[in-house]
């Protein structure tokens, strides 16, 4: 892993930066924090005495890195509030990723699908995973009333989702239900 954290990379390589970690953090703690977002390829923990520890976590699938940022940025971990973002690349002027300082980095599009029939236990992660069968999902959200919205990067993916995923079985971590789709 020598030099791994210094590689050029960013949003496309599945790597995330995790900052503001507690001083006694271990690699196993990081694995426990992030395993639910996808298969982890590597963890590089930088824990120099006297400095606040930080780490780089690399997922096999770059889409899982986006989910991890969304789910863990600003997360209270012990006495620390985690900062989770895509790593800055060489030559960047710093600043925050696209989503701004208080939110996750997001890509949005006009290729939206409205989803109904979600079970109360359905999460945005479950919905995003289900809808990925049709193409590249750049945004997913769910409401408590069983409604959700998914945005695709390409119009063709949205149209394919409307044809192929309408009235399909949706599995959340607790319940199965059938989804109904329409474009917005």
**Largest sheet: spatial strand order:** 2-3-1-6
> In this structure, how is the largest beta sheet organized?
4 strands, antiparallel
Based on helices, strands and strand pairing, what is the structural class?
alpha+beta
Gap between N and C termini, in Å? 46 Å
Tell me the series of helices and strands, N- to C-terminal: EHEEHEEEEHEEHEEE
Number of helices: 4
Organism: Galemys pyrenaicus
InterPro entries: Nucleotide-bd_a/b_plait_sf, RBD_domain_sf, RRM_dom, RRT5_SRSF_SR, SRSF9_RRM1
GO molecular function: mRNA binding
Function: Plays a role in constitutive splicing and can modulate the selection of alternative splice sites. Represses the splicing of MAPT/Tau exon 10.
Describe the structure.
It comes from Galemys pyrenaicus. One of its GO terms (molecular function) is mRNA binding. The chain contains four helices and twelve strands. The protein has helices at 27-34, 62-72, 124-131, 155-164, and strands at 15-19, 40-46, 54-59, 76-77, 80-81, 83-85, 111-116, 137-142, 147-152, 169-171, 176-178, 180-183. A hairpin with a 4-residue loop joins strand 10 and strand 11 (176-178). Strands 2-3-1-6 form a four-stranded antiparallel β-sheet, with helices on one face. It is an alpha+beta fold and 184 residues long.
Features:
184 residues; alpha+beta; 4-stranded antiparallel β-sheet; 4 helices; 20% helix
Give a short overview.
The protein is α+β, with helices and mostly antiparallel strands. It is built from four helices and twelve strands, in the order βαββαββββαββαβββ. The model is unreliable at 1-9 and 90-105 (pLDDT under 50).
């Amino acid at each position: 892993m020598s030099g791994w954290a210094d590689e050029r990379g960013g949003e496309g390589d599945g790597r995330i930066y995790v900052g503001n970690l507690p001083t006694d953090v271990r690699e196993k703690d990081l694995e426990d924090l992030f395993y639910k977002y996808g298969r982890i390829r590597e963890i590089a923990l930088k824990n120099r005495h006297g400095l606040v520890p930080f780490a780089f976590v690399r997922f096999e699938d770059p889409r899982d890195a986006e989910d991890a940022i969304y789910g863990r940025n600003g997360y209270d971990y012990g006495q620390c509030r985690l900062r989770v973002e895509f790593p800055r690349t060489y030559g960047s002027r710093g600043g925050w990723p696209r989503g701004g300082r208080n939110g996750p980095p997001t890509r949005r599009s006009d290729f939206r699908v409205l989803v109904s029939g979600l079970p109360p236990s359905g999460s945005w992660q479950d919905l995003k995973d289900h809808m990925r069968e049709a193409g590249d999902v750049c945004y997913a959200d769910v409401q408590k009333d069983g409604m959700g919205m998914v945005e695709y990067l390409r119009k063709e993916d949205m149209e394919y989702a409307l044809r192929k995923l309408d009235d399909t079985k949706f599995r959340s971590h607790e319940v199965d239900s059938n989804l109904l789709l329409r474009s917005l």
